Amino acid sequence: MELGRLVPVPPREVWTSEAHDFTPWLLANYESLREALGIDLELSAAEHRVGEFSLDLIGRDLGNNTVVIVENQLEATDHGHLGQILTYAAGTGASTIVWLATSFREEHRQALDWLNQRTAEDVHFFGVQVSVVKIGESPPAPLFEVVAKPNDWQKRLRTATRAGTVSPRGELYRDFWSRYLKRISGRGWGRRQTPPPANWMDFPSPISGTRINPSFAAGGRIRHELYLDSGDGENNLELFEAILQRREAFEAAYGCPLEFEELPGKRACRISEYAEGAIDKADDWDSYMDWFIDAAERMRVAIAAISNGAGSIVAAGSMEGAAPIGETTVTAARRSDLTS
Length: 340
What we know:
Elements lengths: L5 E4 L1 H4 L3 H11 L2 H7 L3 E10 L2 E9 L4 E11 L2 H14 L3 E8 L2 H13 L5 E12 L5 E8 L4 H11 L4 H17 L18 E2 L5 E8 L3 E8 L4 H13 L1 H8 L4 E3 L7 E8 L8 H22 L6 E2 L9 E2 L15
Helix pairs in contact: 9-10
């Protein structure tokens, strides 16, 4: 039997520019990174604004709905990027911080180990070394090797999986969302997700800085919403007010009045519709799913009616091509306000 031989390929031969080639590629092709990290990763946006700076990639861990950030470096690690990941972690409230580079200096690997030992248990720092290989004339293939991770990371993952500490109500939610995901399969509403034992799910939105979410709200109600959270409260409010200025056109396209909820005291805002419903009424689940799907379709129609096609809102009365309002990037938001 004749076997091929792995040949290393310089990463810069595949991705000439980190910002223009590698980062967009990783945003669209993060499955291998997800497997290397061992988390249910979803990357949602590139060049996410953090104050005056731009984070390479932001997303979330679908398993626990926490923020994940990724900072890329198509070269050996340096002190500058170490400072950047700390700045971005603080600015986004990230729980998982991934520093990706072609090689790690021992001092920087030790720094990540030190951070994992000193920070809270729900904060995780990873160092991931990226390389490229091919066999003969095959297309180049990326390799992601985790060189720094939290202590006993794989053991913790296995323990959490075995523990199965999900309440009976959480199991109901997980069963409902599992069926819902099957119902919407093929609609193009985002990548595969793991059904959570939580009262809500979220999906990508055409407007940057927002998500389209079905949920079970308090008071025996179900809710479908456009959830505004770019990670920055001021940006969220600016975007909320921009949509509010287009309320008439937005609601006309949606097909009925909506609740515009600024959510004072919270970072996020939402625009929502409510109906009666509760997770423990399993006989009504099919009708809830029908309502969620219809609301999601109408929400996307309403978004298209007021956006410029590039993820931004156009001001009322503006001509096509006018400067966008409230342009932000998508983040995975913590949803502590959704309770039932």
